[in-house]
Specification:
Elements lengths: L1 E6 L6 E6 L1 H13 L5 H6 L18 H7 L4 H8 L1
Bound molecules: zinc ion (ZN).
């Protein structure tokens, strides 16, 4: 099983989604290739006006930023690591 975040509406920008089997494999492949709905990738595809994280505003919203550095999700990382 793979846990992931997918974009939601404006009120819930991300929601947790689980995938199993072939969907999990496809999700891992997308993450590995960087094919996500994060702003940096969407901007690269000319589908987003800017590449920046909606909370940090000056840092590109990449997988690495989302998972490891974004201050908006610090409490979630802390809860997961405890
Ligand atoms: Zn951020």
């Amino acid at each position: 099983m793979v846990w992931g975040f997918i974009r939601g509406g404006d009120e819930c920008r991300y929601k947790i989604q689980t995938w199993e089997g072939a969907k999990a494999t496809a999700a891992i492949a997308c993450l590995y290739r960087g094919h996500t709905t994060f702003s940096a990738h969407l901007h690269h595809l000319h589908l987003s006006p800017d590449p920046f994280c909606p909370w940090c505003r000056t840092i590109p919203e990449t997988i690495e930023h989302f998972l490891l550095h974004c201050s908006h999700f610090h409490s979630h990382r802390t809860a997961l690591s405890s």
